[in-house]
Design goal:
The structure is a homodimer of 227-residue chains. The C terminus of chain A is likely disordered. With 227 residues, chain A is mainly alpha-helical. In chain A, helix 1 crosses helix 6, helix 4 packs parallel to helix 7 and helix 4 packs parallel to helix 8. The first copy, chain A, is elongated, with a radius of gyration of 20 Å. The structure holds a DNA duplex (30 and 30 nucleotides).
Chain lengths: 227, 227
DNA sequence: ATACGTTTTAAACATACGTTTGAAAAATCA
DNA sequence: TGATTTTTCAAACGTATGTTTAAAACGTAT
């Protein structure tokens, strides 16, 4: 083997196992045995399990945030002066994610799953790491969302962004669990690109829903939500 | 003390700790020390940690599913013959959840957080347990959703339900992580009821979004999403 | 009071974890 | 080549986990 691909093999194995089972449920012995490297290799190359987790994120998050920022640049340039649409902003982000992992279909799924785990599992160190390492592209995305939804109050927008992130991360992070309980054999296999294509309109519509707190709920009134 | 409140004390402590830290990250020693009972009490009363996890879910899921089914009965009765609206169905569910835990504000938050963890954390036994124990009210809810969105194809509805569950579970299951990274001090404290009130219109609008796969994306076209 | 089933307790169990060690092996460079 | 650094390896370390044990304490009915 060329030089030391041990590091990459560890990252590959850790990435898949973390995505499948979570951080605490994945032991270093699982990782090293799947990667076919010695147990001590993790601590030698990464220092600790925590650092390995951060390295797994850094490996795909750094190029992704670069790609996303470039996509944001293009978007702002193409809509000269005017603020990009909500749909455009969302598409720019999802297409950046898809473009990143054009090689493997599984890559983008793992990508989303890990992002979901990052928030769900209580790994304080990971949160701090992501916060101080990728706060800039994140803030940029938030700014675009703000310009695309000027009609929303700050609080409404805050919560709806939470909802968007939730729908996205959770959908991608759900292993076969939901699939099984939802339908026993529906027989339809969907690619991640298709899921993204279905997700974006859902998110955009939810983001632009009429203000809450307005409609009372007498029976057989159709909801006030548009259409 | 009356009889043996040891069981309840264990359940209380486990519920909170699981909600705060997840299943794998919560040890029996944490639970028993918070509950102020002996370590062996868990295995004596529940048999194993897995059974304890299931018992925590059963304690709130059993009465909740009964309440929800009653709410569905009322809803179908009040809209005589006609299928309940999507908004009505969602409200019936969320209000059942809120009504369950009217005593403590924290109760409903823990409730949602645990549900989120149930899907997020890969506890195979939990999935099987929930599946075979609460499949009936779940299927009933699915049927109502189907009647409320007849315009959707089965596949579209399937994915949009995933999105809804995702937004809900993820929002409720996110500890302070998202809160912190999203806004550094926004100063607004929101109750779970308010979150639910904001969430329902978002979900309903997303669920009823115009069909995807229609709009191409040339620049400065406004999205085809309604409004 | 005594006997009996239930519950609690302290201690130990076996196992798995992340991490460290020190020597062997490989790679790098003089 | 020989010297030196980097990487691998098997083994062990200390700690924490879930679980089990056997005796003690308790409650209750005879």
């Amino acid at each position: 083997m060329a030089q030391s691909d041990t590091v990459d093999r560890i990252l590959d194995a850790a990435e898949e196992l973390f995505a499948d089972r979570g951080f605490a449920e994945t032991s270093l012995r699982m990782i090293t045995s799947r990667a076919k490297v010695n147990l001590a290799a993790v601590n030698y190359h990464f220092g600790s399990k925590k650092s390995l987790i951060q390295a797994v994120f850094a490996r795909f998050l750094t190029p992704f945030s670069a790609t996303a920022e470039a996509a944001f640049d293009d978007l702002e340039k193409s809509c000269n002066g005017k603020a990009p649409t909500l749909n455009q902003t969302l598409r720019a982000l999802t297409e950046s994610a898809v473009r990143m992992h054009q090689r493997s279909e599984r890559g983008i799924a793992i990508f989303m799953r890990l992002l979901g785990l990052a928030y769900t599992q209580s790994q304080g160190h990971l949160r701090k790491f992501l916060e101080q390492e990728y706060s800039e592209p994140f803030s940029r995305f938030m700014g675009l969302l703000k310009e695309a939804t000027p009609e929303l109050s700050t609080v409404d927008r805050y919560w709806r962004i939470q909802f968007m992130l939730g729908a996205t991360a959770f959908t991608m992070s759900s292993n076969e669990a939901l699939r099984d309980i939802l339908v026993n054999k529906m027989g339809v296999e969907t690619s991640v690109q298709e899921i993204a294509a279905r997700l974006v309109p859902f998110l955009a519509a939810g983001m632009q829903a009429k203000d809450p707190m307005l409609a009372p709920m007498p029976c057989d009134h159709e909801s006030l939500a548009v259409l």
